[in-house]
Please model this.
Amino acid sequence: MCQNKPMEMFGTAAILAGGKSTRMGFDKQRILHERITAGLRGVFPDILVVTARPELYRDVRTAADEYENCGPLAGIHAAVKHSKSQYVYITACDMPDFSPEYAVCLMERVRKTGAPACVALREGGKPHPFHGLYGKALLPALERDLTAGLTSPGVLLADVGALFIPACEAPDIFCNLNTGAELAAWQASRTDMK
Model:
């Protein structure tokens, strides 16, 4: 007799690789892929890339947005829907930094509170949608917002009762690289890339 194995709570991390890369001048989704994937694999055994170009990826699972032109919220929806665990850790292809300790901290807080999502707040109190955990319980709210044309992760997170980590408690991992100059400056600042 076959028994369904219960879904584990954490195990999947997703990299959102959407966007048009207009400021970078070339498709940036692969430039940091190996670095980001290697970091995430230290904590999450299952890596998912949300992309419209699955042919670029051989070493990870891929999924595509179901809602076109809806920005990161559509990518968050795809990541949550295709996660193999109850919660998915979400980052972006242009965010080269990762803190395993911070990811574990988020998991511990979600375990204690049962929050449907857990993300950091930026200075000024606005939620940062990346380097956060999102649960399967968010799917109805995600689909409701996207169907209605609402695309703000911050509005969704406030609406569903997400757990917010104060900016002062979050590590400095939220840099994203949008231009060639930003990429070059980041590479020049890294001792591990010289």
